[in-house]
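Local shape tokens

___
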Amino acid sequence: MKLKIAEPGYDTFTGAFGLVQFENGVSVDHVSMKDAFQLSALIQMVDAETGDSISMLNGDEADRLATARVEYYPSVAEVEAQKQNAESAEPSVEVAQAYTREELESIADKEGIAGLRKIGDALNLKGTSVAKLIDAILANRGSAPNTEVK
């Protein structure tokens, strides 16, 4: 659709408004609905062909935009809940119990210390040596300590 600026004083506007080029208050090219809605939030716009206000949404369009907002912009309460869930989550001790020394050494051979750190992170273990990190993971079976291994 082509847009027409309906804001008083802009009826002869020629130039760019955002990414849309206007000539004598009418968009040079067709504009997507998304861009039209965004521009209409800044300045009064109408459909150049029908004269319908862009801000007048039918029920389906309003529902779609409302849903899109919720998906892209979580509420403050949701963000806080996510933070609390992340902080209160206890590391999984089952992670360490799932591996034998040979399996951990194989992971170290294939992925290096980075592979072991993925496992260590689940137990809140930090380490700078492959051998000591393997020992710490095996030693912490059955508990979930906050330990730094040097």
Notes: Confidence is low (pLDDT under 50) at residues 143-150. The helical segments are 33-40, 59-72, 76-88, 94-97, 101-111, 113-122, 130-139.
